[in-house]
Write a structure and sequence with these properties.
Blueprint (H helix, E strand, L loop, with lengths): L14 H11 L4 H13 L7 E7 L8 E7 L2 E5 L6 E6 L3 E6 L3 E6 L6 E6 L3 H38 L1
Antiparallel strand pairs: 1-2, 1-7, 2-3, 3-4, 5-6, 6-7
Length: 162
Amino acid sequence: MDKFIPASSTAPTSRDAVISQHRKLHGFSAPDCQALAMELAREWELFGSTLFDVQQGWSSDFPTNCWLAVNHEGVHLLAPGSKDALFSHPWNSISTFTPTLKAIVIVAEGFTNGTKYALNTPQAGTIALLMRDYNEHEALQAGAEYGSRLSLEAGSRMSLAA
């Protein structure tokens, strides 16, 4: 098992547990096993996120090396190899984000009393572009919902006036 899966990516598992699981899948075709693996992956709350290796230094409560997950819901910081977010911020709580060559600063929950995260990563530019795209999409969605509410309200006023 150590030959195929890095130790940092696995929880302690007994050899017998692996053998038992392998026996359960004996006789399944490769496509069936792939479908089962995808079903398992889709159960993860952050399935579909883009993960980036980052380093943080602002809090001793979190590991220095982390993963930053970016998806349609917002940004999430995870310990490497973990499926559970240490914290998450939806797009509507992100005040600003600024990349440099080797870091990205994310400010959440407002400029004055908000939280500032400084994450070191050579992928800061890529993260910022992805965050911009999701942020713009979120703004368009919010505008479309706001616009459709306005047109519904206007339509109901017009039908009442007619």
